[in-house]
Amino acid sequence: MRLVRAALLLGAALLPLAATAQPRPAATASAVKPIAFTERTLANGLRVYALRDTSTPNVAVQVWYDVGSKDDPKGRSGFAHMFEHLMFKATRNLVSEQMDRLTEDVGGYNNASTNDDYTNYYEVIPANHLQRLLFAEADRMAALVVEPKSFASERDVVKEELRQSTLARPYGKLFSTYLSAAAYTTHPYARSTIGSIENLEAASIDDVRAFHATYYRPDNAILVVSGNFDPAQLDRWVDQYFAGIARPAGAIPRVTVQEPARTRAVSYTVYEPNTPLPAVLMSWHVPADRSADIPALTVLNTILSTGESSRMYESLVYRDQLAQDASSFLDSKQGTGNLVAYAILAGGKTVDQGEAALKREIARFRDAPVSAAELAEAKNEILTAAIRSRETAEGKARILASSVIIDGDPRAADRQLAEIARVTAADVQRVARAYLRDDQSATIRYLPDSAKPAGRSGDTIAVAATVQTAPLTPPAQIAVVTPAPEGQRILPPPPGAPVTANLPQPVETRLANGLRVITVEKYDLPIATAYLVATGGEALDPAGRSGVSQLAADLMTKGTTTRSATEIARQIESLGASIGADAASEGGSVAVTVKSDQLAPAMTILADVAQHPVFAPQELERARAQQIDGVTVALKNPAQLAALVADRATFGASPYGAPGNGTPASLKAITRADVVGAYGRTWRPDQAALILVGDVTPAQAKTLAESQLGGWRAGGTAQTLPPPPALPAPRVVAVDMPGAGQAGVVVERPAIARADPRYYPLAVANTVLGGGFSSRINQEVRIKRGLAYGASSGVDAARTIGSVAARTQTKNPTAAEVVTLMTAEMAKMGSAPVPEAELATRKAVLVGNFGRGIETTDGVAGILGEYVLDGVSLGELQLYTRKVEAVTPAEVQAASAALLDPKAASIAVVGDAKQFIAPLRAAYPQVETIGETQLNLDSATLK
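The structure assignment produced for this chain is given below.
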């Protein structure tokens, strides 16, 4: 799917200013080490980049092709993306889905994405499997097999992806199809990456073969290897597997169309179903990513919408309460890109108000220079985000590869960081005046179809007839590749000797007030995460007040006894950080990740937020309105609503069944006293832990904790979590959402607490069932039948109780079939032992996911935070892999029989019920049908 390259430089908000009002000077790009790499080009044109990092036991392999959705043939929009799916099928030597055997089944993973300008394929695997992945990538570059069965199946999968991302999701059409179509009149960027059902249907198998022959060639690709490898050995393997791939004689077709400058504003008004709140989006053309103006535009975009001190948040969301969500992004490309600003409006607000607000914020950049404080903050946020994006071998590989394909320069990202450090306020004003005038804008006003005036229709937003596309012009002769006969296939080479991972070692101490202080030292980058967790949370929410813990968490960062909400946002974001508080089913958290030299001032703000929130009435009303609007949007997504219905059906009247974010009714009933009570039930030092991970020593951590949190006191008696609730009988519930673009399906049943000795057998069993692409339900639902973009299952095991849920989204007519498939696989798990070979691959998935989770500071902090909240020993960090690998087939079968049996599960299906209710009722005569407007998530009966 489409990737926004600006995210490689921006990402989450983060970097430096002290807790005073004085702006801290912007950090320089020298704080980020340039990416160290070697490069060479083979005789066939393949460019090879190697980034060695011996601190990780993994290696990332990425192959990027210089072909994307802009290159889709005429009448075949979505073709490059559909082809991406087919690259995971068979080759001359690999059977279909073997890429998953070579990656996921050994503890790694693989995926791919399609962008306007490129298609990339990427894997992360244990380093001893590098040779096997090079063999596989070379084989699918040189000898992809395209046959009718897999072609038809994957085309169906892409249709489901389109329905899921574009038709079922609120605002899906706005971002997936309308944005690009409105932005371009000439360039093929006008076509969406996902395409259309009609264009997907029009594609033929001959088109696929021709596309591969035209674009999937070594001189149109780059290979990036990043991680733990021997450079000389890598060169030998690359030569062995890639050097022999022939370089075709013909030229590679290139899009040379230039989008003309927009000199007159364009505006569209559309009315769409499944639009809970009106929205407005505006876009302006920006130059290609290699332009010297992109650094200034990057800074502008950061000031505009990164964090709660950004201009859009402060004005549209916070001050004027016009928008439930307001943001922007810089989508720069090989050619003309866009700066996009949008607002999902708050309840009761109009698109006229939203459009006027967006125009006003853009005009501010043209009319006056940005302040020195804003400029410094933006640079610091960009710099810290750049550091975070380089925490893993995969992240570094992605940055370099994008620089090569988009800019033609592997050092482009480093160069842009250096240029960003030199951007001035005058530069920001200059680019705003050059590119962001009112007459250069394209506006989309996106309204619910219920708002359509009688007798009128909205505007049509379609790819303009003037957009220039070309038919596919393949080579004169295309060799049709067939699988090698059995016995003649070249098998992947064996793995090498395993590389041992260095597991983090937590060090714990305790303050006099009971606060646990947990430190993990990690010095590879100058970054640190502070993560404060406390037990309590949503399980203690009173009946009829669901969402109060989440509301209290949101308000913790919206004002303390010494800082206003605006001061908190400005001070933390000037440090290059963003602070976030959250509530979970059995706890709460406050977190910040920052450059390590800014950890002390960041901790000052985190400690203030945790200890001294004031819950001002005006802030409560503002947060309540935003949360109601957010819930309103979520309730129009079939998958999200199915999950909420399944929770209530599974856990009934207990707090575990209530929506964690609340409902419009429960949120309206919450008083300030309710919020203060929710905070007090969770946030006490004697039930909290401060976790510090990164460039910090245990001694420094304890000193910070003592100075900032040592004086924290809590009155009264700590509340304990309630015992496991009495559970209702399982239910089958169908929620009718007329016109829904897809059906959300969830099969959920109660499970066990995290400390239960059956946890590891259940975790392994769940991974067999639905953990990963090669899992059983994904095999049945997606791979064999093409009924969904994906199907999965997950275990949520907390301190008191847990759940297991299998879920997917599918077209409405196949919802009942999908339920049957998923429940059959759940039942099968307990009826027979899992074969040892399959079990080994699923254990590798768990171990690999865990290994990647501990690569980053916030990943380590998150895992330790879960251990604290779940009542698990910190020693689990060292024992996790051993415990997973010790699970036996008998233990998996026993856990499955007891904990995965679908007879104890509730089933929720949300979609256009007239298309699935008959077969669902035939399978489940007891099914309850509830209309979307009659559904009551505040009630255990759902009515």
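Interim note for the steering committee: The mean pLDDT is 94. The longest helix spans residues 148-168.
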